[in-house]
Every structure is written in structure tokens, then in C-alpha cells.
Amino acid sequence: MQKRQSDRAMYFKELAATSRKYYIPYIQTYKAIKTGMNILEIGCGDGGNLLPFSEMGCNTTGIDIAESRIKDAKRFFKEVNAKGMFIASDVFKINDLENCFDIVICHDVLEHIDNKERFLIDLKKFLSKDGIIFMSFPAWQMPFGGHQQICKSWLASHLPFIHLLPKLLYVGLLRLCHEKQETINELLNIKHTQCSIESFRKIALGEYKIINQQFYFINPHYEIKFGIKPRKLSPIISSIPFIRNYFTTSFFCILKI
User: Fold this and answer.
1) Which helix (H) or strand (E) holds 87?
2) Does the keyword Methyltransferase apply (predicted)?
3) 157 and 118: one domain?
4) Cα separation, 114 vs 90, whole angstroms
5) How does 127-151 read in b/e, with b if 16+ C-beta sit within 10 Å?
6) How does pLDDT run across 156-209, given as a tens digit for each residue?
């Protein structure tokens, strides 16, 4: 397992730094972020993405199905004297926050969702008038699109493209690396729910306008993690669906009703 997957405080700080440097400037190109705005993150994890919004005076809310992550988010926010509300729940079961949010953030969440169409439809209920959704996720075919970095084994967590192996070979490799069954189940769920850029666009365009798209060859988060400057795909490569899926480590877009 890569260190940041076990050191949650480290991961929280890294996400906050990436959000501050890259997500907020990208969002502000399409919607000015002002004090008092209501910001929601679906699948917020430890809350790192939301910290810079809270620092800007926004009202931040995070939802995550994992109670342990919500517990960490509350603790980390308290440690830095930041304000935020965090809810441990399945997003499909939330019915009391309708039409509340100016910005909804979905960072590295969509690839975990089985029913993507229902998820995208459900997101609408959270948006206030003129609200937007910031969506980002890794293309399924890219080197670590299977999230194998969560593996405990150093080898499995650093091997690119293994998630593209046939299921039997993939499971066999994970077992050879002594991965726990719960980790294997999570990785197989991601393999089952795999999300290509094309499948996302097809679903999203039925419900939203896609205001902008950015295709990163080097994920902005890699600058914080590894000291590598982000790089976008060239217009030529990003226009070819099959090729861009293998090179897009992070896809950004803005959705609006």
C-alpha cells in the first residue's frame, strides 16, 4: 500500500493542497466562489478537498458512505479549526438537502458507482438555481484506473494496468500478493463498474450540459504526491476516444442543467 493510503492525515493534506491549487481555479473559471456559498462533496472521504472552500468562507458539507472516513473528516477539520458538516450516508438516501448547493464536487467517485445514470440524475436534486457540478475521475483504461494503489502489497500497489487483466488472472495475482478478500472485493467492484470517458459522456449528456472538458496526461494531484508537474493531453490525442482513455489519468468537467 502506498503510504498516503494508510496515513490519512497525510492524504487529507495532499488533497487540500491539490484542491486549493487546481480544483478551485478550474471551478472559478466557470463560477466565482464567494463567501457564504454552499458547497457539497459526494464521496468526500476525509474531507481534504473541502478544506480550501471552508477557508474561503463557504459552507461545506461532505457525504460519504464510510463512517470511518466521516469520523476522520470531522477530526481533521477540528484540528485546523475549520467549519464543515459531514454526513455518513448512502447519497441515494439523502432527501433533505434538495436545491441547497451552488457547487457539487464529485472527485474520484464515479468509477465506484454501479448505477451511474441514477447517480447523475440524483445529483440534480442537490443543485440550487445556476448551480454546477465539478466532476473528475480517472479513465478506466489508464495505468492505475483500477485503484490498485489501495493494495497492501508494494508490488500490486505499484503495478500499472493489472486491472485490465481477465478477472481470474487479476484475482490470482492479488491473492499471490496476499491481498485481503475485502480489498479484492473492492477492486473487483471497480472493475465491474469501470468508467470510460465515453460512457460517462453518453450518460451525462442525457441530463446536463457539459460546459468544459480537460484531459490530464499527468494528474494535478501527482504534483503534490510526487513533485511531477501536471500535463494536459494534446488536442489531437484528447479527440481520439480509444487513445485518450489510456492516457487520461484525470478527467475534469463542469456539468450544468
Assistant:
1) strand 85-88
2) yes
3) no
4) 13
5) beeebbbbbbbbbbbbbbbbbbebb
6) 999 999 999 999 999 999 999 999 999 999 999 999 988 899 999 999 998 999
219 and 249 inside one domain:
yes
Judge if 169 and 245 occupy the same domain. no
133: DSSP letter: E
Diameter over CA atoms, the chain: 52
Cα–Cα dist 149/55, whole Å: 30
Crossing angle of helices 181-192 and 167-176, rounded to 10°: 150
Say which residues have a Cβ less than 8 Å from residue 106's Cβ, sequence separation at least 6: 41, 42, 43, 123, 133, 134, 135, 136, 137
Considering the domain architecture, whether residues 154 and 206 belong to the same structural domain is answered as no
What range does the domain containing 183 cover? 148-192
Query: How many Cβ atoms from other residues are within 10 Å of residue 199's Cβ?
Result: 15
Q: Per this entry, what is the length of the chain?
A: 257
For residues 177 and 158, the answer to whether their CB atoms sit within 8 Å is no
Does the global pTM surpass 0.70? yes
Measured CA to CA, the distance from residue 174 to residue 92 in angstroms comes to 31
Rounded to 5 degrees, φ, ψ at 115 are: -95, 85
